[in-house]
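Quarterly update from the structural biology core.
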Amino acid sequence: MTLDKTNLTPLAQAQLEMETRATADGYKRFQKHQKQVADNQGDYATVEGKKLVSGSIPLVAEEIQKYIDSAGNGGKGRTPFALSVLREFEPEALAYIALNYVYMGTIRNQALGHIHFNVGQAVETEVIAKTIELERSVKVAERIQSKLAQQGSLKNKLKAFKKLAKENLDNLEIWSNDVRVKVAEPLINAVLIALPDIFELYTQNIKKDTIKTIHLTREAVELLTSLEDASAWLDPLHRPMVVMPRRWEDLDTGCYYDERAKRTVKLVRTFSHEHRRMIRKAIKSGQMDYALEAINTIQETPWAINTKVLEVVKEAYDRDLDIAGLPKKTSLPVPPKLEPEVWTKMDDKEKKGHRLHLSGIHEQNRRILSERATMDRDLEIAEDLSRYERFYLPQNMDFRGRVYPIPHFNNQRSDHIKGLFKFADGMPLGEGGAFWLAVHLANCGDFEKVSKKSFDDRIKWVQDNEQDILDAAADPLNTILWWGEADSPFCFLAACFEYAEWVESGRSEDFISYLPVALDGSNSGLQHYSASMRAEKEAALVSLTPTDKPMDLYQIVADRVKEEITKDLSSDDEFIRKLASVALENGVNRALVKRNVMTYAYSSAQFGFRNQIIEDTIRPLDTLVMIGKKTHNPYEIEVDGQKDGGFKVANYLAGKIYRSVTATVSKAQEGMDFFKAVAGVLAHEELPLVWTNPLGMPVMHKYSVWDVKKVELFLFDSVKKTTHNKAKVGDTTLQRVVAHIRTKPSSKIDKHKARSAVAPNVIHSMDAAHLLLTVLASKDEGYAHFCLIHDSFGTHAGATERFFQIIREAFVEMYEAYDPFEEILDAAKEVLSDKAAESLPQAPEKGSFDLNQILSADYAFA
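Predicted structure, tokenized:
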């Protein structure tokens, strides 16, 4: 349905302008805005500003025009498809698209092929949008059709576009991935050639693969951070909305107002045409009505920026304060280049160590530069949104039904971004709200691991530390050494602000609170296994049974691991004794094992555990060594005369943790093995696993083996080298890059992926259904403001007393009515031949756990 733009409210008009600015048409609007700012403020148009902001688009557009002119003068013959498409657009509009997606690729460290895909897809969207606009005026359409009929190989395609657009937009011919890449190639070349001082090609070696990416140069990042409005030219396509999102009524009807922006998002994030057909059919039949109502309710929650927290985030970032999770503003110092005489005196081991040290510093600095660019954009968006009384986060779902905000700036991000969000509409605390506000405050701080203690202990902690809380709210920058050590520093600070305002109100029940109060599941994955399998032992370990305080599965596993490692101190093997000694000296605690235990329910195994330990525990210590805060990494040991980087200890720990987890929660392993076996039988028959979740949404678990096409590209490289595989063009150098592009999925199923990914996909589909069922039950009782992150349930403090019970009731009702094991077994039998079905496993035997115990389990979601 086309949006009627004639009678929009001022806010709706502002929203539409935001969306338009975020697409290619936004270039002209942006230029107009630049002139107004320069005229009104005078000092905006600095030399740096002109170069980076006003100057970038014309420079890139000029290079695009050069390509169009040169490629168009190639003589007779077939017109390249990319040229046929690109010359139908203004070069400035194409430059705008290319700059947006190249920049996004730099801050997200996307592979070069991914950037090509995004740019090509954006151009494809523009082609489709243009077609939609053409059908509004027959005369204009006929005139342009006549013109396009002369454009060689594009003629029939554009005629098909017009015809299909009139009949059914969903049937428009979709470009293949290799076509998207070819269309994007000249645009990305133009960015690299025009802006060598901003973007540069970079090669990463990951395992055995060589990955090319595009990075911001050091000079570019420093320039970006110095310009107050520089990120205006890098407007993300999907931003929060200042009016309520359009409701989802079909797969592609929701949220944004602008035709281009709307077409870039679907209700369900799936690339499978088969899955999309299933979704459309389920919606049309009414089967997904509950799911649609739930996601529409979530995205209708009005938000506001917590300006108090925003000011502290900005100041802490500007000062480059050391707060967990806050991006660093200052790069690590790079040691001066060694003198030749020093280098020649070093042996091979020392030279290798020095190169690795430098490589580590450069890699850290690249990460810092990317995070700085992201942070600058986040702050610009937060400042912009702070000028509105309310804004909204449009939502959609992944293929399993999990709900995600569409904009990158959202409440599911890191603590320093999440802490910026508060509800736009307040609610009185009422009789029990102050209790839950205090519980939330204690949870966010989690000092002395108080979140693992009883509610009474959490309230007592708040009472004992009330003066520190009030001091933090009154003077956050001078108390940062205290609140900055919280588990979630900025969410904790937001709670301090709210608590202090409540105290100032006279601790009144009428105090209007705007802060989302969160209740988190206690190891969500294992909770779902325990409930679905009625596993009594596991249910107790993850707080699904009534207890006086929360159960701490992470500590239970840590204690077991420590006990096993201590035994190894007496091993006959000297190397094992060494590993055990290093592990114990560095501490075997809940923090070490937490991520391993958390991801175990999602099929993470020993190898995955090892990588997590390296990433979470060992690599951060490498950074401390690089900046001089530590002299060495205590996890490193010498193997054959060389430091091993901590890998041996990480692998040792991973094995101990894996064996301890599997022994502690063995019932969950039965469930995982069942799902893998079913998926394996289907994959052997080249069939996907398809099931329907508790809200009627079809879920497709399908990992195809893709056909891969080799595409040779010429990409600008600012580093001049002389090889047989390069062609000189003026003062620049073109480098041939071979990209392997996935063109289309084949009929073959990736059997390994089918087995390894099925357990997490099933469990995620269940936690997604639980979340949506909770939303619907809450809305029925009049609560409709939500702050949700998969297994974290948030609403107003004044509504939490009842919400606390609704979460449990929805969980119990779901598993009383729905058995994922029987659902998946029946779904498999439905598509398998009788002979193939004989290979299916039996559903796991249920335990004796009574689900009704969850209703009295205070710490199941707390």
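The chain is about 55% helix and 10% strand.
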